[in-house]
């Protein structure tokens, strides 16, 4: 194994030969075995018909989990729940246990999966997404209907993205960040903790080399390996004292 991914009750491992193995819950065909059975499996098994994989991502929850695989030719395959069009397929297909190529996607450098939505970053620094858009998760300035086809986010110069439950963090080539989507607990880092944002919001923090997103909280890796956190800290998940203001990035140590 060279990489792993886990979400809800499902896990997957990317192997050095470019194949993927998965285990745990197979709800909505999340194990990618071409069938909805077994319901659960503690024994890792190969994902059907997937090879040349360079990255994997899992998104969603127990009842709506989906998976993405980035291939070495810059295309993406998806499987699992399609309840909100997270697979980039018509919602008339609620789930697909067999990995299938996402139409209209090429030149992809990185991937991310959230709660019912999916994101890609292309080699030109553009971000495209599909699936749920009820709180602006796709960063395209629109809200409402799910998108079965990729739409371009209003952001440029991106090198990587992280998808939380309903929010997104993007890292730019110059070490800055943009965020969009749900901000119910300040997870966008913009100084308020309410509502949502349909368009990417620029943050002042610089020198960021990596980001991660949880259910309603966020992290950034700054200069010299310094971690920053913001968002929901009710269970101390941001690593700050109880009651600390976390709607802007704060240094954790």
Average pLDDT number: 96
Question: Order of strands side by side in the largest beta sheet?
Answer: 1-2-3-4
Task: Write the element-wise H/E pattern from the N-terminal end onward.
Answer: EEEEEEEEEEEEEEEEEEEE
- Assess the beta-strand content as a share of residues: over 45%
Please tally the helical runs, counting DSSP H or I stretches of 4 or more residues.
0
Q: Using DSSP, what is the number of strands?
A: 20
User: What gap, in angstroms, lies between the N and C termini?
Assistant: 31 Å
Fraction in helix: under 10%
Radius of gyration: 17 Å
Overall morphology: globular
Low-confidence stretches: none
Outline the structure in words.
The chain has no helices and 20 strands. The protein has strands at 3-7, 10-14, 20-25, 40-46, 53-59, 66-71, 76-81, 95-101, 108-113, 117-122, 127-133, 144-152, 158-163, 167-172, 177-182, 196-203, 210-213, 217-221, 227-231, 250-251. The strands form 5 sheets. It has a 4-stranded antiparallel sheet with strand order 1-2-3-4, with no helix packed on it. Strands 5-6-7-8 form a 4-stranded antiparallel sheet, with no helix packed on it. The radius of gyration is 17 Å and the shape is globular. The mean pLDDT is 96.
């Amino acid at each position: 194994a060279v990489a792993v991914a886990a979400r809800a009750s499902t896990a997957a491992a990317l192997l050095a030969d470019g194949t993927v193995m998965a285990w745990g819950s197979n709800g909505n065909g999340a194990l990618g075995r071409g069938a909805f059975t077994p319901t659960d499996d503690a024994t890792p098994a190969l994902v059907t018909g997937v090879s040349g994989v360079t990255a994997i991502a899992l998104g969603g929850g127990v009842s709506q989990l989906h998976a993405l695989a980035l291939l070495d030719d810059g295309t993406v395959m998806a499987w699992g729940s399609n309840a909100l069009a997270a697979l980039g397929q018509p919602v008339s297909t609620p789930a697909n246990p067999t990995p299938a190529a996402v139409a209209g996607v090429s030149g992809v450098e990185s991937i991310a999966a959230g709660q019912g939505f999916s994101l890609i970053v292309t080699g030109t620094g553009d971000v495209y997404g599909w699936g749920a858009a009820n709180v602006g998760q796709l960063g395209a300035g629109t809200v409402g209907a799910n998108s079965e086809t990729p739409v371009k986010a209003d952001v440029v110069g991106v090198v990587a993205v992280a998808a939380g439950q309903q929010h997104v963090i993007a890292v730019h080539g110059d070490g800055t960040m943009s965020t969009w989507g749900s901000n119910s607990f300040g997870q966008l880092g913009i100084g308020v903790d309410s509502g949502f944002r349909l368009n990417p919001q620029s943050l002042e923090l610089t020198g960021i080399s990596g980001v991660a997103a949880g259910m309603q909280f966020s992290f950034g890796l700054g200069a010299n390996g310094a971690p920053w956190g913001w968002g929901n800290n009710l269970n101390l998940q941001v690593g700050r004292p109880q009651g600390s203001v976390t709607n802007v990035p704060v240094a954790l140590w």
